[in-house]
Amino acid sequence: MTQAPDMRRIIHVDMDAFYASVEQRDNPALRGRPVAVGGDRQRGVVAAASYEARRFGVRSAMPSVTARRKCPDLIFVPPRFDVYRAVSAQIHRIFARYTLLIQPLSLDEAYLDVTRPLLVRGSATRIAHEIRAAIREETGLTASAGVSYNKFLAKLASDYRKPDGLHVITPGQGADFVADLGVEQFHGIGPATAARMHALGIHTGRDLRARDLTYLTRHFGKVASFYHGVARGIDHRPVEPDRPRKSLGTERTFERDLYEWADMAGPVSEMCQRVWHGCERRDITGRTVTLKVKYNDFRQIVRACTLMEAVASAEELHAHARGLLRGCIPPERGIRLLGVTLSTLVPRAQAGARQLALALE
């Protein structure tokens, strides 16, 4: 990809059906078969689907019963997040050979800024080829990559040749590439916003580009400047390595509605243990405890408390979560989902120092 000296070179790497591909790699009996990672139960949800399953319309976040209806031969596999995290770390070590500017979006995708790479290969495209080859050789998995001069276009490019593909969008191609895409394909425009745009007669990038910034601001507020830019192939957002995590949480959907405290206390305790285990692995803690409750009519409430000092243990986290849960008992209707999140995060060493100082006063 040729470019002006001051133009960035961005790669977006996206693993192909990551969770499902790991399961197929580790279990040869699953290869070539429709696989869903998730719970095969009445209220289970598909976390990931293999490409064989996707051909039947199975998608992530789809209820398991719907997925089974679309694909009767679907094989459900319980998730192994410890394995996925380990493979993700292996992939990130490959990235780190080429650049320190790595912005993870999830376990299976990341942006890389290779404008000034650690290993010079002549072009961002050559680096992307090498990264994909190393991932295949060292993990047995495939990845798709997009190469461009900004993050927005690099992500669009990685989707363009999936699976196991590589696509480049040069500076001279950016605006034209965006023009023919439906706005629902734009990263950053969700279903609700896409529907609002359709109602305004905005269906493609070309339609979006025809609206001036004043018009877009009137209808979409502060985010209008982003839409105005990407419709023209412009995105000035930098790759942001090591962005601080804002929260750590988990949730659980139940196979039957819960009404009694005794049925909820155990799952909340288990979720607190999982959240705290995640905090210990990352050497962080937090001051805000949040409880999420979703009822059987899909109405959702959130209860939270922010503490003067950071949580010091799993037991303390559980005590605060339990207190928030008691405020929801008895429930006005059956509860189908509970979640626990810890936020306002700080390093555990910093929190420990504050607590020690208080003890000595």
UniProtKB/TrEMBL annotation:
Cofactor section: Mg(2+)
Matching InterPro entries, A to Z? DNA/RNA_pol_sf, DNA_pol_Y-fam_lit_finger_sf, DNA_pol_Y-fam_little_finger, DNA_polymerase-Y, DNApol_IV, Rev_trsase/Diguanyl_cyclase, UmuC
User: Which UniProt keyword terms apply here?
Assistant: Cytoplasm, DNA damage, DNA repair, DNA replication, DNA-binding, DNA-directed DNA polymerase, Magnesium, Metal-binding, Mutator protein, Nucleotidyltransferase, Transferase
Q: Which residues form a coiled coil?
A: none
Family annotation (SUPFAM superfamilies): DNA/RNA polymerases, Lesion bypass DNA polymerase (Y-family), little finger domain
The question of whether DNA-binding is a record keyword is answered with yes
Q: What EC number(s) has UniProt assigned to this enzyme? A: 2.7.7.7
* GO MF annotation terms: damaged DNA binding; DNA-directed DNA polymerase activity; magnesium ion binding
Under Gene3D superfamilies, the record lists:
3.30.70.270, 3.40.1170.60, 5' to 3' exonuclease, C-terminal subdomain, DNA polymerase, Y-family, little finger domain
Report the subcellular localization: Cytoplasm
Start and end residues of each UmuC domain: 10-190
> Does the keyword Metal-binding belong to this entry?
yes
The record's catalysed reaction(s) read: DNA(n) + a 2'-deoxyribonucleoside 5'-triphosphate = DNA(n+1) + diphosphate
Sites marked Substrate discrimination: 19
Output the Pfam families linked to this UniProt entry: IMS, IMS_C
State the Gene Ontology BP annotations. Answer: DNA repair; DNA-templated DNA replication; error-prone translesion synthesis; SOS response
- UniProt-annotated catalytic positions: 109
Its quaternary organisation is: Monomer.
The UniProt entry, under NCBIfam families, shows: PRK02406.1 (NF002677)
Q: What does the function comment of this entry state? A: Poorly processive, error-prone DNA polymerase involved in untargeted mutagenesis. Copies undamaged DNA at stalled replication forks, which arise in vivo from mismatched or misaligned primer ends. These misaligned primers can be extended by PolIV. Exhibits no 3'-5' exonuclease (proofreading) activity. May be involved in translesional synthesis, in conjunction with the beta clamp from PolIII.
Q: What is this protein called?
A: DNA polymerase IV
Protein source organism: Novacetimonas cocois
